Amino acid sequence: VSCCDLAAARQLGKAGTMASDCEPALSQAESRNPTLERYLGALRDAKNDSEQFAALLLVTKAVKAGDIDAKTRRRIFDAVGFTFPNRLLTTKEAPDGCPDHVLRALGVALLACFCSDPELAAHPQVLNKIPILSAILTTRGDPDDAARRSMIDDTYQCLTAVAGTPRGPRHLIAGGTVSALCQAYLGHGYGFDQALALLVGLLAAAEAQCWKEAEPELLAVLRGLSEDFQKAEDASKFELCQLLPLFLPPTTVPTECLRDLQAGLARILGSKLSSWQRNPALKLAARLAHACGSEWIPAGGSGGKFLALLVNLACVEVRLALEEPGAEVKEDVVTACYALMELGIQECTRVEQPLLKEPQKVQLVSIMKEAIGAVIHYLQQVGPEKQKEPFVFASVRILGAWLAEETSSLRKEVCQLLPFLVRYAKSLYEEAEETGDLSQQVANLAISPTPSGPSWPGDALRLLLPGWCHLTAEDGPREILIKEGAPSLLCQYFLQQWELTSPGHDTSVLPDSVEIGLQTCCHIFLNLVVTAPGLIKRDACFTSLMNTLMTSLPSLVQQKGRLLLAANVATLGLLMARLLSTSPALQGTPASRGFFAAAILFLSQSHVARASPGAEQATLALAPDYEGVWADLQELWFLGMQAFTGCVPLLPWLAPAALRSRWPQELLQLLGSVSPTSVKPEMVAAYQGVLVELARANRLCREAMRLQAGEETASHYRMAALEQCLSEP
Q1: Model-level pTM?
Q2: Considering only the top CATH level, what class is 559-728?
Q3: What are the tens digits of pLDDT across the range 266-312?
Q4: 607-610 and 619-622 as β-strands: parallel, antiparallel, unpaired?
Q5: Who contacts 196 (Cβ-Cβ below 8 Å, separation ≥6)?
Q6: Domain limits, the chain
Q7: DSSP-assigned states of every residue in 124-190
């Protein structure tokens, strides 16, 4: 078989590829072409490679390019089968006078023809050729060799066809195709643009798997694209804006890439642009903000100006989209702008090493306030039929981020929207199974270009908790929240989230947002306990909450690293116990005794006596476990001490229980072992409050305190109330 014969035989592949996109209405084509029928018979009856070559050549002459429908193409495949292409792909020796790759080229051409049939593209005999096809892309050769170029085109056609099948991307990734495509693109040889297009498709279909299999190679592509983006002066920079989000890794983005991306974005966004040019740049910036926070923005004046520009443009875009009557809302772009606004909110509240100067912060807050007003206006128009749409969720998220930091401005508008927010959060919470992927849909809308990319964590209720925590401290908003049933919803939510942290669940895999959400719920309940005690007494949901707090605290205080949550639970439970003291559940039941024992453990272990070299007396110091979190904990501790003090006269069994725990004795012993000057006045007051109430409530407590030198200690610390109480019979 001559080289010319092989070139002619490749026309079969050409015929198949041209027919793949437009199938002519030739359902009876084979019956109208008896010559093709005769040659197909010869192809089926061929006894060796020479006869098969000859018959294949005749078939190519009997059909014209584009004159093969799917049925005819399948009949040709049935006649050829995979055995012949398999030998072509694996044969090392070429016919005399032909290039080494000529047999492989014909084999690939046949595969390309067959792969235009989706069913054949998923055939195991095609899938097991993926490593061979991938290797072709990385094989060096004469760039001017037309036959080699045709083979590369056919290879990309095969790989693209496989990628279009349901499980194709997984097979390609396992077969080393991602690495081969990266090398082909970085080599900038023939077909490198096809390599990039196929890489984009694989990343869009299976981002995590691609990065797992070929992270070094993909990072090299990202470096190349970032450098091209930074240098681009033509329209290609706008095309790169659309490609680059796909190539950002799920882990750390290399510093040099961040530098190039920021520089390229600064040049684009600092210019006068049309919307089709600006929007991809805003989406790329949002993707970087979501993945890296503000780390990609350089410190100093230039970084602050760039951030201010980003947030400014985002706010303008949001207002144009949501305020203008009848305006078309590009939801993906506006969602990206929300991410940039959220970055602006974070930076405006940042204290350490801020990117923004105070005048810039003031200006941005004013600009963002107007954009948030537009978001509120939009949400006021949302009907029930739209409540499950990702864009509504994204709009609630940015409002929640704003309310977490600022509730004084737009107060009237926020109060008007509160009923909707409660109904919206309740609807999504109650239908969690149906809407569980809503935050991921938001991510897919603009922030993450792939289904498996990083998601925006949290459900709607969790997004609103920080803002509601602030609002429940204010009379007007609190009344609206209570009227709309928010406390009952929050109790249900707390109990459901608490289940995730209970024994039997692996808390190590829980996101931090779950525990933070529980703590924020506790803060809201604390606000309600203080400002709306009647609600706590009459609403049955708080009885259920109290029961959960009582049964949970004993194990919680024993768990390492969860002291802050334990402090919230203990303090909330103690405050609620004062209001629910007549409840049967608090009348010395095992659960109530276990809760108060755990609360005493939390309160009593906060401070220790610490000896100092050369000092005559030890000083009162924080216990090691409390030191790192005391700044967040101390207010809860003092409130807990005050609440425990209030519970003692209401629960007659509590003082004897405290005595059995030896807390009053150990407390006096601690105070007697340290220098009085090391104990701050507020600590003295807290300790005296507990000791006085225990002494007043129970004679045995008074006797135990006297035996522990209570009167002398009271005198040293000028605890007049305790000294007087202990001096009485």
Answers
A1: 0.84
A2: mainly alpha
A3: 999 998 888 888 999 999 999 999 989 999 999 888 999 999 999 99
A4: antiparallel
A5: 181, 185, 221, 243
A6: 81-231, 559-728
A7: HHHHTTHHHHHHHHH----TT-HHHHHHHHHHHHHHHHHHTSTTHHHHHHHTTHHHHHHHHHHHT-T
